[in-house]
Write a structure and sequence with these properties.
Elements: H1 11-15, H2 18-24, E1 43-49, E2 59-67, E3 77-81, H3 91-95, H4 98-106, E4 109-113, H5 119-125, H6 135-143, E5 160-165, H7 167-178, E6 185-189, E7 196-198, H8 201-209, H9 212-230, H10 235-241, H11 250-254, H12 258-262, H13 277-285, E8 292-294, E9 300-302, H14 303-312, H15 321-324, H16 333-344, E10 345-347, H17 358-368, H18 384-387, E11 399-404, E12 432-435, H19 455-478
Parallel strand pairs: 3-4, 3-5, 5-6, 6-11, 7-10, 11-12
Antiparallel strand pairs: 1-2, 2-4, 8-9
Helix pairs in contact: 2-16, 4-19, 9-10, 9-14, 16-17
The protein binds 2-acetamido-2-deoxy-beta-D-glucopyranose (6 copies).
Length: 479
């Protein structure tokens, strides 16, 4: 998740710290910081108790930014859940993205709210505290007093529309289900509502959505490496060929292949925030051919394998526990990884290479979070904590589900091809929309000039405006 998504080259992905490499590529965050932002928004603090259930005597300050440019008395509050990163990464959505679009359409007040445990909170807590605590945003919604806004905008007197993308999309859906009386409406965009131990669909979606030549090249290379690893005569030679002669674990080699593939997730319809990594990697893999090359290690490979090795050779290393146990404040990859290890799962597994499996992908949980004095990470995450709130089938009046057609995280969203409710009816009260050709939460960002957005992005923004206005009309009628 700390992957810099504007990377043009693959090397920094592979060379990122261990946690970032394993976790960044497939973490559900894709938050490019728009360079287009021209306005600065005021930042505020809201005092929260450390624990909503027990009085510890401790409080902390929750950060939020406010966009009041469209606000008129009687308007709603549009709040975006900052999710698993610093809320400052979400500023573009407040300025030209979905928050501004909905606020403009409804005379609303736009807010982006930092998730407890990330951002400013993280700096003071220094990894010591994680708690899921949905009461935190609920307490904000029912008690916040906005500076320079004379009206009391707390819920339930004022309608609040909650928005989140990706992990925060799942949070948005959960907020509607857990607090139906204070969260008037929710939009879950690419909301990964179904936690899963094995996230096998992720790469399968990429395989099917990528250009056929490119997928074919990866498959050729990865199958060939699998065979070379399986053969005791070539097992160590193929590791040398990839520049990692000291590797003990086969999966330490094959897990590197996730980097070039996972770059798919950082695609965006806006060229200013899109990453070309995936297409660059495809170009580097070349076109399918039967050309073979003899390696210095004494075996013969297809040109696809040769090309993959050229990419991977740029970076190599050996996993060791000490790498994972660095706890200086630059290791922010630990934050989302902890949520993965305790509740969400989503461990990478691939059909090829066979060596990357749940056991391998979850090994990091034991390495990075050894048993502590107060807490022990479970053997596998308690995904039931998440899925009892609805999982794939999560539904509620005024809960909108928006997913991307070729988003690898669609596997964990209500539109998943393994979801029992993949083909729900799309109604104004329960919108259920799939954005064509879209990857991850494509509706979250917007351009200053909306008419320059691709037609499918303008369309989804307009649909969101329409159903939110419809919900708000219901609110007015009732109050
Ligand atoms: C918010 O709280 C933090 C400490 O948690 C403090 O450093 C900062 O100055 C406060 N900001 C405002 C605007 O009050
Ligand atoms: C705000 O909404 C109006 C229509 O209500 C529209 O004409 C205008 O372009 C919108 N502005 C922005 C910045 O979205
Ligand atoms: C192998 O692939 C590379 C990269 O696309 C290409 O430049 C080269 O010509 C290919 N070699 C053969 C023998 O096909
Ligand atoms: C790769 O795909 C393109 C477009 O589908 C096709 O025109 C081209 O012939 C393919 N190249 C090879 C080597 O198969
Ligand atoms: C490779 O050779 C096989 C068997 O001769 C052939 O069917 C296939 O089309 C060839 N592939 C390419 C990309 O030339
Ligand atoms: C393990 O990683 C740590 C920190 O990155 C490093 O200092 C140490 O030398 C490594 N140990 C081995 C055996 O590679």
């Amino acid at each position: 998740m700390n992957l810099k998504l504007n990377l043009v080259s693959l090397v920094p992905i592979l060379c990122a710290s261990r946690l970032d490499r394993l976790n960044g590529v497939s973490s559900p965050t894709a938050t490019p910081v728009s360079k287009r932002q021209t306005t600065s928004f005021p930042v505020f603090n809201f005092t929260q108790p450390l624990d909503h259930f027990t009085d510890t005597g401790f409080t902390w300050n929750q950060r939020y930014f406010v966009n009041s440019r469209h606000y008129k008395p009687g308007g709603p509050v549009i709040v975006l859940d900052g999710g698993e990163t610093s809320v400052t990464d979400r500023l573009p959505y407040l300025d030209t993205g979905i928050v501004d679009i909905l606020a403009n359409a409804t005379n609303g007040l736009g807010v982006i709210l930092e998730h407890r445990y990330y951002g400013a909170f993280f700096v003071t807590s220094q990894y010591r505290i994680y708690s899921k605590q949905p009461p935190t945003p609920a307490n904000f919604i029912t008690n916040v007093k906005f500076a320079e806004i004379p009206e009391d905008l707390t819920a339930p007197h004022t309608p609040w529309i909650y928005y989140g993308g990706s992990y925060a999309g799942a949070r948005s859906a959960h907020m509607k289900v857990l607090y139906p009386d204070i969260v008037f409406g929710s939009i879950a965009s690419s909301g990964v509502t179904e936690a899963a131990i094995s996230n096998w669909g992720y790469y399968d979606i990429i395989r099917r959505a990528a250009p056929a030549n490119c997928s074919a090249q990866f498959i050729t290379a990865v199958k060939e490496v699998d065979n070379l690893l399986s053969n005791p005569e070539t097992n160590s030679k193929v590791k040398s060929f990839f520049g990692m002669p000291g590797l003990t674990l086969d999966a330490d080699l094959t897990s590197f292949f996730a980097g070039p593939l996972g770059a798919w997730q950082s695609k965006n319809w806006d060229p200013a925030v899109n990453s070309n990594s995936f297409s660059n990697n495809c170009a580097a893999m070349g076109n399918p051919s039967n050309a073979t090359i003899a390696t210095f290690q004494g075996f013969i490979v297809n040109n696809a394998t040769w090309n993959l090795a050229t990419i991977v050779n740029k970076c190599f290393g050996t996993l060791n526990d000490t790498d994972f146990q660095q706890t200086d404040l630059s290791q922010t990859g630990r934050l989302w990884q902890f949520q993965v290890c305790t509740q969400w799962g989503f461990f990478d597994v691939t059909c090829y290479p066979k060596f990357v499996d749940v056991e391998y992908s979850s090994k990091i949980c034991k390495q990075a979070y050894p048993p502590g004095e107060f807490f022990q990470v479970p053997a596998l995450p308690n995904i039931e904590d998440v899925n009892k709130l609805g999982g794939f089938n999560i539904a509620h009046d005024r809960l909108a589900i928006i997913d991307g057609e070729v988003d690898p995280w669609r596997f964990d969203c209500p539109h998943s091809f393994i979801s029992p409710t993949e083909f729900r009816e799309d109604t104004p009260l329960r919108p259920f929309k799939l954005i064509p050709n879209a990857v991850h939460h494509y509706d979250e960002n917007g351009l200053a000039d909306h008419t320059q957005e691709p037609p499918e992005i303008q369309a989804i923004h307009q649909q969101e405006v329409n159903f939110v206005k419809g919900w708000l009309a219901d609110f007015k009628q009732r109050h």
